[in-house]
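Thread: "does anyone have the structure for this chain?"

Original post by V.I.:
We have the sequence but no experimental structure in hand. Need at least a predicted one for the grant figures.
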Amino acid sequence: MRLFVAVSLPEEVINESLRIIETLKQEDLYANWVPKENLHITLLYLGEIADEELPLIKKALEQVKLIPFSANLTKAGVFSPDFIRVIWLGTQAREFVTLHVRVCEALKRNYKKDFVPHITLARAKAVRDKRAFMQKLSMLKIKPLKFNVDSFVLMNSNLTPDGPVYEEVLMFRV
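Reply from O.Q.:
Generated one for you, tokens below.
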């Protein structure tokens, strides 16, 4: 199994993400766009995990203390304007970083000091005019939707010729 830990999104955040995706599809870039059913915020990618490890992962994640919090959408961005690979929609809430660290510690994984909570919108293959694209990205009007986080999920990623198909393995609530 290819596993990752994520936060699922409410419908209004998914709809805003899809609106931004439709706007960006009009730009001069070649990309794989994330389908509606795959939109989420990744807390930790675990990679290929043997089935027999699942009970240990479940037990560890059950120990993660999640205090419900509110977050909001902020801006669209990329990790590197020089090498545009991932196009994302940012979220603002320090608690995402705290949750990332707690998940990493529970699973005995190194946490990212520069963890950026985000919703991946696309994986770019080529951007013809990077400067123009970055300018367009910075001018996008994002609805600063506020949403509540009171759970996280363990997801399985099945790779198919049409792209990954995600399925929820376990949900962890407050």
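V.I.: this helps a lot. The chain has a mean pLDDT of 95.
O.Q.: and The chain has one domain: 2-173.
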